[in-house]
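Batch manifest, entry 17 of 40.
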Amino acid sequence: MDYYDPEIAAIYELANPLEQDGDFYLSLAGQQSCSVLDLGCGTGTLCCAFAERGHRVTGVDPAAAMLAVARRKPYADRVEWVESSAQAYRSERRFDLIVMTGHAFQVLLTDADAVAILETMRRHLKRDSTLAFETRNPRIDWVVEWTERSRLLPGGEITETLNITDAHDEFISFQTSYRCFYKTLTTNSTLRFPSREHVETLITRSGMMVRNVFGDWNAGPFEATRSQEMIFVAEIAR
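Output type: structure tokens
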């Protein structure tokens, strides 16, 4: 995705307010202050919400343009911002909670990249602590769900339109257009839709074990033929 472009980063901020998924991840931190690592933090909305609640937060993203938006937010001064890919991130710190949100796991198009991310999580996670991320259920027909999808972004000045450009095996490619009154910006993306079983295998390969798999943001059970989300909560294997 083209999030290194400041204009695209600003639009991403409009298109992705804190919603039900954010509430789910915030709940994992609990009421007591804890340390949180957000890999692929984007424009930092969730990081700042964690910081507002008194948690000690590190937000990691490879796009300087996204982090520039993040640093302008309330409570941003309480967050450690790191420009890095999740695969390459290294710190001496260990965290009570590690999250990867916004379906960022689906940007990882190979097992090698997915395992590298999961190993980064394991390396930086305290024992008996929690990591969580989500990916969309491949049993849902996402091509049908997304065909000719269009919406008006908050503020009413930008229209977002998604067009599928290719779909095969585990992969869907699409172009997203953002049209405002004076120009149109476009991004091109490819996402992977691995099965629940395959994701669990990768988690195990990385030295961790699955604690729960939820099917919605209310922590409802995953239903293979109906749930749109696969929300994985895991920990270091004992």
